[in-house]
Design brief:
330 residues, alpha/beta, inorganic pyrophosphatase (n-terminal core), Diaminopimelate Epimerase, Chain A, domain 1, 2 domains, six-stranded mixed sheet, 13 helices, 19% strand, globular, binds manganese (II) ion
């Protein structure tokens, strides 16, 4: 995989005065924290920064950040045309992942910073990609520290938050992660407080969001001798819970069940349109998501599906059964 160096990225950052920072649509904390921390840092260096994310920016913890993100390109078009900012794309590495901003940002010099493996190699003038990194925020941390070692506590705090979110508060980390944990140590030295971050991420949730987890656990179907769990957020469930669908709590609760290997969560989007999230304890489901035109990581990936819920479930059951069988034989 082709990747440019931190020095290349730094040259672009120090040599430009105006930036548009975009992340992927349906952003997660790693994406938003990458965008936010980078913006804070660049602003303190006297740069002009505009934040863009096609959204939706959800979650109570992100409420204070939301007003600072443009969720539609329309109000930015004139500015982009006249100022030609450098586009920085975080936590994704193909143009379609920035949604409605892709068209608006065409032609801008583009810097991509990401830790996903399955991006579009032709997207971006500079690409800093490292799939070994537990989060995009740790890549941002390395870039920023190469520029200026003294990170502000607020910047360190956000970079740490992104890491905690993508690493499931350390529990998804594999052996060999020591170099990244040294970066994490730097962040705590600069002011990040793990207990505070954990409280921000895990507490203060609504009762409705707990009931969502309970309902999904109760309704999920179990296949392949208890190795594959399949749950669906149907249209009525979507209506009832809306933004209170805490899917990560559902994955945690399901994954804790003895024997569970793979979880698929189907989410209703509109008529005959579904988003599917896959989670795995150890088997590579990134390839499965890729085969459906999606992407992600080895243990967490997703894709979109057009068609009936019935045929989606049937195909998924067939494909996951095959994957589990291959795993058993190998
Ligand atoms: Mn990420």
């Amino acid at each position: 995989m082709k990747t440019d160096t931190i020095e290349d990225i730094l040259k672009a950052l120090t040599g430009s005065e105006n930036f548009l920072i975009a992340g992927h649509f349906q952003p997660d904390p790693d994406c938003l924290c990458s965008q936010w921390a980078l913006a804070e840092f660049l602003k303190r260096k006297g740069k002009k920064v505009t934040l863009a994310n096609a959204g939706p920016v959800t979650g109570a913890a992100f409420e204070p950040y939301r007003p600072f993100f443009y969720e539609s390109p329309a109000p930015l078009l004139a500015q982009i045309q006249s100022e030609k900012p450098v586009l920085i794309v975080t936590d994704c590495s193909s143009g379609d992942r920035i949604g409605t901003f892709q068209e608006a940002a065409k032609g801008l010099f583009t810097v991509v910073i990401d830790h996903h493996a399955n991006g579009d190699e032709n997207f971006g003038d500079l690409r800093y990609i490292d799939p070994a990194s537990p989060s995009t925020t740790l890549l941002i941390k390395r870039i920023l520290c190469a520029w200026d070692k003294s990170l502000l506590p607020v910047v360190a705090d956000d970079l740490f938050w992104g890491f905690c979110a993508d690493s499931g508060f350390f529990r998804f980390l594999q052996g060999g992660c020591a170099p990244w944990l040294r970066d994490v140590a730097d962040l705590t030295e600069a002011g990040a407080v793990p207990s505070r971050t954990f409280a921000k991420m895990m507490y203060g949730k609504s009762l409705l969001s707990r009931r969502f987890t309970a309902e999904m656990i109760r309704k999920m179907k179990v296949f392949e001798n208890g190795r594959f769990f399949l749950a669906a957020v149907t249209k009525p469930v979507e209506r009832r819970y809306g933004n209170e669908k805490d899917t990560s709590s559902f994955y945690d609760a399901a994954m804790a069940v003895k024997g569970c290997e793979i979880i698929a969560l189907i989410k209703y989007e509109k008529r005959r349109r579904y988003a599917v999230s896959l989670r795995s304890v150890r088997i590579d489901i990134g390839k499965t998501a890729l085969a459906y035109g999606g992407g992600g990581h080895k243990l967490a990936a997703g894709f979109r599906f057009k068609g009936s819920l019935f045929s989606l479930k049937r195909r998924l059951r067939r494909d996951i059964a095959r994957l589990l069988k291959e795993e058993t034989l190998s």
